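As agreed, record minuted below.
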Amino acid sequence: MKVLKILLVEDHEADVRLVEEALFDCHIMVNLKTVSDGEQAIKFLKRQDEYQKEEQPDLIILDLNMPRKDGHEFLDEMKVFLKEKEIPVVLLTVSDERNDHERALRTHLTFFLSKPVNAEKLYDVLEAINDLWALAGTSNKVRIRKPSRQIPKTPLPPQQNANNNANNNSMKM
């Protein structure tokens, strides 16, 4: 079974944990490496400094808004030095701005995943990437299983429920 090598570029620890949980819930064998900004990610891909012994990832999960070098700047630089190697990039974003999406699509093979990340969203993106790998005839295709657990919905506290019901009832009148 193939182990998927993923580089996660994310500066918020809570989002790192959410991605880790989503990967676990999709039952993927993964070697996950994490860096906190675009500068470190470039060094990782170029195998510079402390990243000299790292292998190239099969997939990059990239936060759009980061300190020092953001996701767009990373994609621009990555495109220049990785011309021959296509590494799919999943862009993590809270942005709904069309300009952000268009700019990312122009620079590299990019998929979008809105924050917060959960297993269902990640599964859909990984399935699409697997399909592309299958069409390209690469050996990167990995086994992914549908997430097995449901994300619980947090109920409103009783006081808010009562207020919402009162508002709904007054609207019906």
About this structure: The two ends are 61 Å apart (CA to CA). The first strand starts at residue 4 and ends at 9. The chain has one domain: 4-172.
